[in-house]
Design goal:
The protein is mainly alpha-helical and 245 residues long. The protein has two domains: 174 residues, no CATH class; 47 residues, no CATH class. A two-stranded antiparallel sheet has the order 1-2. A hairpin with a 5-residue loop joins strand 1 and strand 2. The relative contact order is 0.09.
Length: 245
């Protein structure tokens, strides 16, 4: 009886969802993107913690920022992109239309979305936005190649068999696994960030040591660094601090 109730509830939910797609397609797709992004990032955070061997600690700020990106950019972008594809290739030979749609999707649209996704993830992780160009250079090509392997075949099926209004739902379901992969792809950068933080701690200690004759506190030494104190490297590689007067 319980399974039957679940089946009836799912049927009613599906009917209501399709009705919402007909009456308010853009809003429905934005909400769909928000829900799927919440699920995908939560799963990704849990999976990352498992892989790193640490306790899971949910980051609501990161998830909320990615939800905003998904709802206010990806949802509308996919909606209007699909509308444009249908408008441009309406009446074409079906096989030719699918081939051209997939080619355009996997080049122009994917390139733009990948760059913006890297920028959004940098913002969501509360990293300096100045890191975006470097992250694009280091991960965009790898991301594009993986994207073609996953999304290329997916888009062939989507354009050939899935109704236009249901495409964002299918894409968001697939993106749950894609989000996990993407975060795994960026894990080496997370390790580099830890190294950078360790180097900053060492640098602060060196400021205090080399500025000892001026009786600087840790706070004062940090202020000297912030004002542009110069880090010099001796011939043997030892770091020294030269304080601007």
């Amino acid at each position: 009886m319980m399974l039957a109730d679940v089946h009836v509830w799912l049927d009613m939910l599906w009917i209501q969802y399709n009705a919402a797609l007909k009456s308010s397609p853009l809003i429905t797709k934005m909400l769909t993107a928000a829900v799927m992004t919440t699920i995908s990032d939560t799963v990704a955070q849990a999976f990352t913690a498992l892989m790193d061997g640490v306790a899971f600690s949910f980051d609501p700020v990161k998830t909320m920022r990615l939800v905003m990106f998904g709802a206010f950019y990806m949802g509308p972008a996919v909606h209007y992109w699909n509308r444009l594809m249908e408008l441009l290739f309406s009446g074409w030979n079906p096989a030719a239309a699918v081939a051209i749609k997939v080619a355009l999707d996997q080049t122009a649209f994917t390139l733009l979305c990948s760059v913006l996704t890297i920028a959004a993830l940098t913002w969501a992780e509360r990293r300096p936005m100045a890191q975006v160009p470097g992250r694009v250079r280091s991960s965009l090509w790898v991301l594009l190649k993986a994207n073609w392997k996953v999304w290329g075949p997916t888009m062939v099926v989507v354009y050939a068999m899935v109704e236009e209004d249901l495409r964002p739902l299918v894409l968001n379901i697939v993106s749950i696994g894609w989000q996990v992969f993407y975060l795994m792809l960026l894990r080496p950068e997370a390790k580099e960030k830890d190294i950078e933080q360790g180097e900053q701690a060492v640098l602060l200690k060196e400021v205090q040591v080399h500025a000892g004759e001026r009786q600087l506190s840790g706070k004062q030494a940090a202020e000297f660094v912030d004002r542009g104190d110069k880090l010099a490297m001796t011939a043997d590689g030892e770091r020294r601090i030269s304080l601007d007067s």
